[in-house]
Amino acid sequence: MLNTKLIHPDILEVLARAGHGSKVLIADGNYPASTTLGMNATLVNLNLAPGMVGCTDILKALVSTIPIEIATVMSYDKAGAHALEADPPIWSEFRQILGHHGGPTEFEFIDRLDFYEVVRGPDICLVIASGDQRIYANLMLTIGVVK
Question: By CB distance 3.0 to 4.6 Å, which of 54, 88, 133, 144 could disulfide with 69?
Fold first, then answer.
């Protein structure tokens, strides 16, 4: 019997093979997960319906299972036609969940096109596609060490 909130067998299998420095992407419902999948990554589709399963639900399960060293988000447009006036609200939810479990509460930021390139890279072991429709809900986690 597992003593973790996470019970998805495919996700557990990938995490069991991963190590310090491996990266996991929780992808929002707008993220092109199948066309940006890296050579070492496994894609797990949890996008059941719009809004289901959410990125914060996935994060809550992951933080109960793996140590998280770095949290990275896709930076948003601060000027121009699609500019946001403030950080996306989901980021404060991410910070709260991560902080509650001893993870980082500050993010690293990567521009959108560079973010796609990082996700295509060899360090990404797992991409979890969610049905979350909130903007800028993509969260890349770097696995830390067990202390």
Answer: 144
